[in-house]
Amino acid sequence: MLQSLPAKVEADLEIRADFIAISQEIDALKDKLKQVPVNDESQLDRAKREELYWRKRQLVSEELNKWQQIQLRKITLNIKNKAPQVANLPSYFNRIRRLDPPRDRLASSLFLNAPLRSVQGRTALQDMITLCKENPRVAYRPSLRPKRGHCPVSKCAQDMDR
Protein backbone atom coordinates (compact mmCIF):
# COMPACT_ATOMS: atom_id res chain seq x y z
CA MET A 1 0.00 0.00 0.00
CA LEU A 2 1.33 3.43 -0.93
CA GLN A 3 2.27 5.53 2.08
CA SER A 4 3.17 8.68 0.14
CA LEU A 5 2.29 10.16 -3.21
CA PRO A 6 4.32 9.32 -6.31
CA ALA A 7 6.67 12.19 -7.21
CA LYS A 8 4.83 13.15 -10.40
CA VAL A 9 1.46 13.29 -8.64
CA GLU A 10 2.96 15.36 -5.84
CA ALA A 11 4.48 17.79 -8.38
CA ASP A 12 1.13 18.03 -10.19
CA LEU A 13 -0.61 18.72 -6.89
CA GLU A 14 1.81 21.54 -6.07
CA ILE A 15 0.95 23.39 -9.31
CA ARG A 16 -2.83 23.09 -8.87
CA ALA A 17 -4.59 26.43 -8.42
CA ASP A 18 -6.19 25.64 -5.05
CA PHE A 19 -2.92 24.30 -3.62
CA ILE A 20 -1.00 27.38 -4.82
CA ALA A 21 -3.65 29.72 -3.34
CA ILE A 22 -3.38 28.03 0.06
CA SER A 23 0.43 28.15 -0.05
CA GLN A 24 0.39 31.86 -0.91
CA GLU A 25 -2.03 32.60 1.95
CA ILE A 26 0.20 30.68 4.35
CA ASP A 27 3.26 32.64 3.19
CA ALA A 28 1.42 35.94 3.55
CA LEU A 29 0.30 35.07 7.08
CA LYS A 30 3.80 33.91 7.96
CA ASP A 31 5.28 37.25 6.87
CA LYS A 32 2.55 39.14 8.73
CA LEU A 33 3.14 37.15 11.94
CA LYS A 34 6.88 37.85 11.84
CA GLN A 35 6.26 41.58 12.06
CA VAL A 36 3.46 41.60 14.68
CA PRO A 37 4.07 40.98 18.39
CA VAL A 38 2.02 38.28 20.09
CA ASN A 39 -1.47 39.56 20.88
CA ASP A 40 -5.12 38.66 20.26
CA GLU A 41 -5.05 39.62 16.56
CA SER A 42 -1.93 37.56 15.97
CA GLN A 43 -3.61 34.61 17.69
CA LEU A 44 -6.43 34.81 15.13
CA ASP A 45 -3.88 34.89 12.31
CA ARG A 46 -2.07 31.90 13.82
CA ALA A 47 -5.34 29.97 14.00
CA LYS A 48 -6.08 30.86 10.36
CA ARG A 49 -2.59 29.71 9.35
CA GLU A 50 -3.10 26.39 11.19
CA GLU A 51 -6.41 25.93 9.38
CA LEU A 52 -4.70 26.57 6.03
CA TYR A 53 -2.02 24.01 6.87
CA TRP A 54 -4.79 21.54 7.73
CA ARG A 55 -6.55 22.18 4.39
CA LYS A 56 -3.25 21.67 2.57
CA ARG A 57 -2.75 18.34 4.37
CA GLN A 58 -6.32 17.36 3.48
CA LEU A 59 -5.64 17.94 -0.23
CA VAL A 60 -2.58 15.70 -0.05
CA SER A 61 -4.52 13.10 1.96
CA GLU A 62 -7.40 13.05 -0.54
CA GLU A 63 -4.97 12.57 -3.42
CA LEU A 64 -3.21 9.76 -1.54
CA ASN A 65 -6.55 8.05 -0.85
CA LYS A 66 -7.33 8.13 -4.57
CA TRP A 67 -3.99 6.46 -5.34
CA GLN A 68 -4.48 3.86 -2.63
CA GLN A 69 -7.90 2.96 -4.08
CA ILE A 70 -6.34 2.48 -7.51
CA GLN A 71 -3.60 0.24 -6.13
CA LEU A 72 -4.15 -3.52 -6.34
CA ARG A 73 -5.00 -4.86 -2.88
CA LYS A 74 -5.21 -8.64 -3.30
CA ILE A 75 -2.92 -11.19 -4.85
CA THR A 76 -4.67 -12.12 -8.05
CA LEU A 77 -4.75 -15.65 -9.33
CA ASN A 78 -3.29 -16.49 -12.70
CA ILE A 79 -6.26 -17.93 -14.61
CA LYS A 80 -4.21 -20.45 -16.63
CA ASN A 81 -2.44 -22.28 -13.82
CA LYS A 82 -4.42 -20.89 -10.83
CA ALA A 83 -1.22 -19.95 -9.00
CA PRO A 84 -0.92 -16.69 -7.07
CA GLN A 85 1.48 -14.16 -8.53
CA VAL A 86 3.66 -14.14 -5.43
CA ALA A 87 6.79 -13.64 -7.51
CA ASN A 88 5.56 -10.14 -8.34
CA LEU A 89 5.52 -9.11 -4.67
CA PRO A 90 8.60 -7.34 -3.23
CA SER A 91 11.11 -9.59 -1.55
CA TYR A 92 14.06 -8.85 0.70
CA PHE A 93 15.66 -12.23 0.05
CA ASN A 94 17.58 -11.08 -3.02
CA ARG A 95 19.24 -8.36 -0.95
CA ILE A 96 20.32 -10.63 1.91
CA ARG A 97 20.79 -13.97 0.20
CA ARG A 98 24.61 -13.69 0.16
CA LEU A 99 24.62 -13.74 3.98
CA ASP A 100 23.42 -17.36 4.04
CA PRO A 101 25.31 -19.39 1.39
CA PRO A 102 23.23 -22.62 1.64
CA ARG A 103 19.98 -20.71 1.12
CA ASP A 104 21.61 -18.74 -1.70
CA ARG A 105 22.68 -21.94 -3.47
CA LEU A 106 19.26 -23.51 -2.91
CA ALA A 107 17.48 -20.50 -4.37
CA SER A 108 19.43 -20.86 -7.59
CA SER A 109 19.57 -24.67 -7.82
CA LEU A 110 16.33 -25.97 -6.32
CA PHE A 111 14.20 -25.50 -9.43
CA LEU A 112 16.72 -26.80 -11.94
CA ASN A 113 15.53 -29.69 -14.06
CA ALA A 114 18.27 -32.10 -13.00
CA PRO A 115 18.24 -35.59 -11.46
CA LEU A 116 18.99 -35.94 -7.75
CA ARG A 117 22.08 -38.01 -8.48
CA SER A 118 23.64 -35.22 -10.53
CA VAL A 119 26.09 -32.74 -9.01
CA GLN A 120 23.37 -30.04 -8.78
CA GLY A 121 20.91 -32.47 -7.18
CA ARG A 122 23.39 -33.67 -4.56
CA THR A 123 24.41 -30.08 -3.77
CA ALA A 124 20.76 -29.10 -3.30
CA LEU A 125 20.15 -32.08 -1.00
CA GLN A 126 23.29 -31.32 1.01
CA ASP A 127 22.20 -27.67 1.42
CA MET A 128 18.73 -28.78 2.60
CA ILE A 129 20.29 -31.15 5.12
CA THR A 130 22.59 -28.34 6.30
CA LEU A 131 19.62 -26.02 6.81
CA CYS A 132 17.73 -28.68 8.76
CA LYS A 133 20.66 -29.48 11.03
CA GLU A 134 21.83 -25.97 11.86
CA ASN A 135 20.80 -24.31 15.09
CA PRO A 136 17.90 -21.96 14.25
CA ARG A 137 18.41 -19.87 17.41
CA VAL A 138 21.56 -18.14 16.13
CA ALA A 139 22.52 -17.33 12.56
CA TYR A 140 26.07 -16.05 12.19
CA ARG A 141 27.63 -14.36 9.26
CA PRO A 142 30.54 -16.50 8.04
CA SER A 143 33.12 -13.98 9.30
CA LEU A 144 31.52 -13.75 12.78
CA ARG A 145 31.30 -17.45 13.65
CA PRO A 146 32.89 -18.44 16.97
CA LYS A 147 36.52 -19.48 16.74
CA ARG A 148 37.56 -22.26 19.12
CA GLY A 149 34.43 -21.63 21.19
CA HIS A 150 35.12 -17.89 21.68
CA CYS A 151 33.84 -14.68 20.14
CA PRO A 152 35.96 -13.71 17.09
CA VAL A 153 36.23 -10.08 18.24
CA SER A 154 39.64 -9.80 19.92
CA LYS A 155 38.52 -7.46 22.71
CA CYS A 156 35.48 -9.57 23.57
CA ALA A 157 36.72 -13.22 23.51
CA GLN A 158 33.57 -14.31 25.37
CA ASP A 159 32.78 -18.05 25.50
CA MET A 160 30.20 -19.10 22.92
CA ASP A 161 28.52 -22.48 22.68
CA ARG A 162 28.66 -22.75 18.92
Overall shape: it is: elongated
Q: Which spans have pLDDT < 50 for at least 5 consecutive residues?
A: none
Strand content range: under 5%
Distance between the terminal alpha carbons, to the nearest Å?
A: 41 Å
Share in helix = 40-55%
Q: What is the succession of H and E elements?
A: HHHHHH
Rounded to the nearest angstrom, the radius of gyration is: 29 Å
The strand count comes to: 0
How many DSSP helices?
Answer: 6
Structural class determined from secondary elements = mainly alpha
**pLDDT average, as an integer?**
80
Largest sheet: none
Describe this protein's structure.
The structure is a single chain. With 162 residues, the chain is mainly α. Helices cover 53% and strands 0% of the residues. It contains six helices and no strands. The radius of gyration is 29 Å and the shape is elongated. The mean pLDDT is 80.
